Amino acid sequence: MKTYDAIIVGGGHNGLVAATYLAKAGKSVLLLEAREESGGATTSVKPFPDYDARLSRYSYLVSLLPDQIVADLGINFKTIARPVASYTPYQRDGRHDGLLVASDWDEASASSFRCLTGSDGEGKAWREFYGEIAELAQRLAPTMLQPLKSAAELKAEVALPEVWRNLMEIPIGELIRERFSDDLVRGVVLTDALIGTFVSADDMQANRCFLYHLIGNGTGQWRVPQGGMGELVRELLRVATSAGVEIKLQSKVAALESGPAGVRVETESGQKYVAKNLLFAAAPQYLARLRGQPEPCSLEGSQMKINMLLTRLPRLKSGVDPRLAFAGTFHANESFTQFEAAYIRARGGAMPQPLPLEMYCHTLTDPTILSPELIAKGFHTLTLFGLHTPAKLFDADPEGAKALAKERAIASVNEYLLDPIESVLAPCRDGALAIEVKSPLDLEKDISLPRGNIFHRDLDFPFLNEDKEGVDQQLWGAETDAPHIYLAGAGARRGGGVSGIAGHNAAMAVLAQT
User: Fold this and answer.
1) What pLDDT is recorded for position 469?
2) What per-residue confidence (pLDDT) applies to 468?
């Protein structure tokens, strides 16, 4: 058996980041990926064979990937800012309109808030609220690539006690109700606390989700990956192999042993490998099963993903230019009240109606994922993310529930469209329309997300709680109870999202011990 300095299990973006850091430090590294290709959730595919359109099938936007990782590894990967942050259609007093928020606050945003609420107060509250978060993000983001600090240490370093209290110590729902008065505005703010997280607004798990969605790279801005997510994977593969990482595909780990001297793994095909350290870049539930330990408790995945190819953008009942409405995040039926009602309904075992969802059009910012022919014809992609659709709703009848969720999603968006979404979907040769639906169960089957949880497990705050056992062993948030096994995926502390942070921190934890 060949011996390595490190074995990486899982060839998603975190695994590739960890492997490259170690290889660049002179370590011999073997990466084992269970599937036929690397990338995990960060892949681009052609879901509709009749059309040359490469869609980011699972992960689709980038916020958390630090510039430092891009620079450290020499990744030639570009993300593009969206001029529009969000558009939220609504109907009030028989009138269709929408709340338009630019990425950089402008008069159009101020006017949109004024039209919705009748005054400038809510717009002022918005700017103040997100200004505070922007300052927190600038101070907090760099610490994500540093050894963990205690809550007290990090709070003192950030030096924003009121903002810290608001986001770390009281429920985000309470804060939103305190700072905003309009139900629709409250819902737009709440959205970032619920993406992929099946909880009420008053659950502190929503705070953690909100924090991770707003501190990315010190700006919190969600950006479009140029060329699609697959471009990130291609670049990570390039730098990994250039650094000397040995990659073996179709190598699912079936057995794992660890001891004082290191680790030994065996794949389903019977291949055996030995290393001093193992960095596990797949779900911690899978690691627990391999080690014969109880799986960590976690919320279920709570999102449905729909990918679409359109012959043109649909017109809206509000009359807004579709190129504005879909350029950022398009929210439908996501007021604060609607979110809470959808959560209560789903918790009771029923599919939400109306279904809260958000969409965005990759091709308005980056058309390169389409062939020149499709661009010339005016085609566009549309990505839909349905919230409060937990895995349990799909257990009894996976296909029937998926069909119902698709129906509810289409009805939810059509409520605000002059052209029903079905009328602009590209037709396929077999008579079907170019629409692909992925339930939480599909996410588990396709890319091993436990119960479809995009974070692998419940998120942690990015600091240590002094009152918990084992604090001294958590230097990077990657350490486990086995001295040579480290978490390097989304399930690590400060994991989650397309960031590479967990991969970086696991590699640093290993290098700190050698």
Assistant:
1) 45
2) 55
- The first and second tokens of residue 254, run together, are 């079936």
Residue 414's H or E segment, with its range, is helix 398-414
Residues in the chain: 514
DSSP state letter for 131: H
Diameter of the chain measured on Cα atoms: 73
CB 387 within 8 A of CB 309: no
pTM of this prediction exceeds 0.85 = yes
The 10 Å Cβ neighbour count of residue 41 is 20
* Residue among 407, 173, 226 at smallest CA distance from 304: 407
What is the C-alpha to C-alpha distance for residues 342 and 9, in angstroms, rounded to an integer? 37
Strand-pairing partners, residue 59, are none
- DSSP helix/strand/coil, 107: helix
Question: Rounded CA gap, 179 and 124, in Å?
Answer: 10
Binned at pLDDT 50, 70 and 90, residue 45 comes out as: very high
478 conformational bin, left if phi > 0, alpha if psi -120 to 50, beta if neither? alpha
- Please spell the DSSP secondary structure of 173-234, one letter per residue: HHHHHHH---HHHHHHHHHHHHTT--S-TTSHHHHHHHHHHH-GGGT---EEETT-HHHHHH
- Residues 243-301 pLDDT 10s: 999 999 999 999 999 999 999 999 999 999 999 999 999 999 999 999 999 998 888 88
Q: Write down the pLDDT at residue 471.
A: 45
Residue 31's CB is within 10 A of a number of other CB atoms, namely 30
Tokens linked to 125? 């509250």
Closest-CA residue to 490 (of 455, 461, 463): 455
Considering the chain, what is the average pLDDT of its residues? 95
What does the pLDDT look like over 148-189, one tens digit per residue? 999 999 999 999 999 999 999 999 999 999 999 999 999 999
CA distance 486 to 476: 10
Q: What is the pLDDT of residue 63?
A: 78
What is the rounded CA–CA span in Å between residue 318 and residue 7?
55
3-class state of residue 376 by DSSP:
helix
Start-to-end C-alpha separation, the chain = 22
Residue in 32, 16, 27, 141 with CA at minimum distance from that of residue 73: 16
